[in-house]
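Review form for a predicted model. The reviewer records the input and the model, then writes brief findings.
Reviewer: anonymous (R2)
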Amino acid sequence: MNNILIIENDLDLLGKYSDVLKKSGYEVTAAFNSEIGINLALSTLPSLILCNTVLSDIDGFGVLSILSKNPSTTKIPFVFLNALSTPDIVKKGIACGADDFVTKPFQGDQLIRSVEGRINKNNNHPHNGTGLEKLFDLISQCKIRHIKKKQTLYYESDHSQWLYLLIEGCIKTLKLTDDGRQMITGLFKPNSFIGLDTLLLDDPWLESAEATQDSSLYLISKSAIIDLLNEHVGLNQHFIKILSANLREKKDQLVELAYESVRKRLTQVLVRLNKNAVPIDQIDICRDELAGLAGIATETVSRILTDFRERGLIERNGSQIHILDFGGLIKMKS
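Model under review:
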């Protein structure tokens, strides 16, 4: 059974969070200040840590900084609990290594979905082994490229010697239709590899890639990665899992495009984007990009989002979409 460590100095909230998690089948360890929380994290090695950003002694960012420097706790998923997740606070937390932000008070099953999502993601990611250590060593020595929003990373039909690892920002891959419309084939968030599908092929890019936000990426030599895979066969499984997940998502997209209504297609896109959204239930994406992902017209996106807002499913402010009723969205897509 997964054990969740909660670090919260409000005893009433600490009790409420504990009850919610226990009812969902988790073991809970509670700490009412950061010193106790840090000691419990080191002694119990929980599956995930929930921590208030505002604590009476060391704040949540300090707790994360201390635990991230300890080899035994550095890989434990860390989720901040905060009354107000402003862009600056979220950016600071991500820079420190936080996996998610959950804004208080929680909406519905938001806390449980965040915990489940981060634990599942962590369980599917290898944390030890010589091959993975060598991969991290290789990446740490690679050059970093910074690109601005709307700047092209590479063009369709170009050849490249690089595999990219996104550090921060967001990159979309796209193809242009004959009438000039964009069909978005992928949307990559931090810690995603870009270009795995061409790693073992000497073929040109089959799509273009463009930054949707100011972004930074590691440039990893394809030949160096291939040498590493040949030397550490077990590392192949890590990349095969990533490719398999990407292939499954592409297959789901094709089925949606072929058989689903425009409303269901857009709903599926929002649900997929929310899986990797930080903070959870807050998606930063413009109408054109939603249209490209769902394969529908921008005007249709606007109409459907307006309907979702009127139904109380979402709030929208520019490119920011705040999901208010995730369960309602799930019902819309089924």
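Findings: The mean pLDDT is 89.
Further findings: The chain has three domains: 3-123, 130-241, 260-333.
Recommendation: see findings above.
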